[in-house]
């Protein structure tokens, strides 16, 4: 700006004071606040871990009797040389037995529930990539027909409760038994194995109400976004400072 001789020069303004005098700081505050909310929301986004009960499809709907389970596999037992899909048993309530749920079906080695007096192991795989294994916990309900039931995680006994069902009892398959796993998880692919032995045909396994709690590991990009968002939010809330500007200039902000 040009200085007219004989007039006093206006006080020197900082860049922020210049913005303030022309109402720019108000716009800056709104933009920074909006950016902060968007970035913080983006960094807080978390994925979910799909866990499937026994005898359900990819949407969690119960399968028809005789159908192959797409999630649970038979991995060990008499005559098992390679993992094969478990099968939804045809008779879901033999002789009026077996508890019933709306989110699972009873499964076994075949639709007839054959395989008496030999232990079989069934497996559910799930992926913890991008999550903190130390923050994971799984809970649910289970039942077996009819004994020597054990829940394992990654080939070992995990931390938790309700992880065994012995000895032989009608309660093992007529009552839902709660369980929880709070330790033993690893990064990447995990294996939830359940072993059970049937004393006399039929045999069956039911796992229902599976749920998982975990904390995602922030990716480097998400951490940067979070930092930028926090900084923008802090700047947007910073108190205004004025120089010796005239009252009219202050009112413009």
CATH T-level topology of the largest domain: Jelly Rolls
Separation of termini?
22 Å
Instruction: Give the strand order, joined by hyphens, for the main sheet.
Output: 3-2-1-4-10-6-8
Biggest sheet character: 7 strands, antiparallel
| Shape type | globular
Number of strands: 11
Structural class: alpha+beta
Number of helices: 5
Mean pLDDT: 81
Rg, please? 31 Å
Give structural notes:
The chain starts with 14 loop residues before the first helix and ends with a helix. Strand 1 (68-76) and strand 2 form a beta hairpin. The chain has 5 helices and 11 strands, in the order H-H-E-E-E-E-E-E-E-E-H-E-E-E-H-H. With 253 residues, it is an alpha+beta fold. The strands form 2 sheets. It has a 7-stranded antiparallel beta sheet with strand order 3-2-1-4-10-6-8, with no helix packed on it. A 4-stranded antiparallel beta sheet has the order 7-9-5-11.
């Amino acid at each position: 700006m040009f200085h007219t001789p004989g007039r006093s020069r206006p006080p020197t303004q900082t860049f922020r004071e210049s913005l303030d005098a022309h109402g720019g700081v108000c716009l800056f505050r709104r933009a920074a606040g909006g950016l902060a909310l968007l970035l913080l929301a983006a960094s807080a986004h978390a994925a979910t871990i799909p866990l499937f009960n026994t005898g359900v499809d990819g949407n969690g709907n119960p399968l028809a009797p005789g159908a192959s389970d797409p999630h649970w596999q038979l991995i060990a037992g008499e005559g098992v040389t390679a993992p094969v899909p478990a099968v939804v048993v045809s008779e879901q309530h033999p002789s009026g037995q077996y508890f019933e749920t709306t989110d699972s079906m009873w499964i076994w080695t075949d639709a007839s529930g054959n395989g008496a007096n030999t232990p079989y192991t069934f497996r559910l795989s799930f992926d913890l990539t991008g999550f903190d294994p130390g923050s994971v916990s799984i809970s649910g309900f289970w039942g077996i027909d009819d004994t020597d039931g054990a829940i394992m995680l990654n080939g070992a006994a995990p931390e938790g409760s309700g992880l065994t069902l012995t000895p032989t009892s009608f309660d093992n398959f007529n009552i839902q038994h709660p369980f929880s796993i709070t330790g033993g998880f690893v990064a990447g692919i995990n294996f939830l194995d359940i072993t059970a032995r049937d004393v006399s045909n039929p045999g069956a396994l039911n796992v229902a109400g599976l749920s998982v709690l975990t904390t995602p590991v922030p990716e480097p990009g998400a951490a940067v976004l979070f930092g930028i968002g926090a900084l923008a939010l802090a700047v947007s809330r910073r108190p205004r400072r004025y120089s010796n500007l005239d009252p009219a200039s202050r009112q413009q902000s």
